[in-house]
Design brief:
The structure holds 2 protein chains of 2 kinds. In chain A, 0% of the residues lie in helices and 56% in strands. By secondary structure, chain A is mostly beta strands. Classes of the chains: A mainly beta, B mainly beta.
Amino acid sequence: DQQVKQNSPSLSVQEGRISILNCDYTNSMFDYFLWYKKYPAEGPTFLISISSIKDKNEDGRFTVFLNKSAKHLSLHIVPSQPGDSAVYFCAASAVRDDKIIFGKGTRLHILP
Amino acid sequence: DSGVTQTPKHLITATGQRVTLRCSPRSGDLSVYWYQQSLDQGLQFLIQYYNGEERAKGNILERFSAQQFPDLHSELNLSSLELGDSALYFCASSDRRTITGELFFGEGSRLTVL
């Protein structure tokens, strides 16, 4: 049972444009949603998070939107830069379960 | 550099063997998490320890076991290895008892079972 789904294995975006990565979840008990970024041969690094009581969180070029009724969240990167090329993992956590569930990841390619 | 150290970085072994993966968390972090990343799979949660005690369990096989020692480092033991156990194993740490946010990941240990 995949509780966190990233349905796009890869995405290509022109440099300077907006990148939108999507994520769906099934468990309405999740309290926090997170995005991690992973470069080859490195561990994932935390990017941005959002509490389930909010619908938007912004940090510089990165904004996460949460639509609880649709059980959907998205990560917007504006403007996209070459260094943004990486695998992005969507993740969710429920405090009572005390574990973070990750999606399969979306590989983002920023094209020159 | 996340501050989380994993050894070994690479390991090649044969089916039926047993290996131990080691993780040193960031200084001060009490929680350690283990994740498995197989080909085309996301990060599968295996197990979490907080200050030496098992706190949460995920899809960890009975052939696998883990522990966290008094100095807070953790070991993941994989036994009776099968080809399908070939994967990247990540350790992560946090300073929180329960999950509310950021985990700090090590660079992973790549296990190849031949």
